[in-house]
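Minutes, structural biology subgroup

Action item carried over from last meeting: produce the structure token record for GntR family transcriptional regulator (Clostridium diolis). EB confirmed the sequence was re-checked against the source entry. Recorded below for completeness.
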Amino acid sequence: MLIQDNIIPLYQQLADIIRNSITSGELKYGDKIPTEVELSEKYNVSRITVRAAINELVESGFIIKKQGKGTFVSKPKVQRKIEYLSSFTAACEASGLKVTNEIIKREVMEPKIEDKKALELDDDDKLIYIQRVRFAGGDPLMLENNYFSFKRFNFLLTEDLSGSLYELLRDKYDINPSDSPNSGNDHTTIEIAKAMDEEAALLMVQKGEPLFYIKTVIYDDKNRPVHIGKQYVIGERYKFVIS
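Output recorded by EB:
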């Protein structure tokens, strides 16, 4: 129960009780949290106190409000520095989530004018398009769309891409994707998008679900373009940190 004469505010005590129930596994992902009225009566506190506790847990990502349905335990959010090359795998593993990848498409296609410019392609070059769904803890989290020069990266058509793409490039081909200021990669953008039919189906979310849309051109340590990246990430389960 809550201690009235404690230095810790009542709303914080209540938030701690609910948080501990989630981290201990007593409350699991998808479980519905009792209503404000039920919590108010159970712990003999005002609804204002309950609301403050709930808002703190929503802000910290432990629970999520669904309009007209109630408040539920949410999946853990993956926290990642706001840098494109911050390791997706490392960020997930830091949250206790194992990463797996599923290849959806691997094909050769004609480049658009903007692709030729971004990747500095020869006139007779083509694109390799690789689409993967990246899973965290068994659940889809990111839809990854990468575009490479066919002339430079045609080996990707036959390589095992079930693991880290950047580790493969570094370890086997001595190609080192870089986020350094000298790479020329100063135009990575992050926007909010809504899941359309393809994204919704592959990420297993409802159409219209909020997604982060990340677009970038990645260079190597010799200032040569490596790939164009266009990624969709489930907003509910991801947060970026500015360091």
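Discussion: Confidence is low (pLDDT under 50) at residues 181-185.
Next step: EB to file the record with the rest of the batch.
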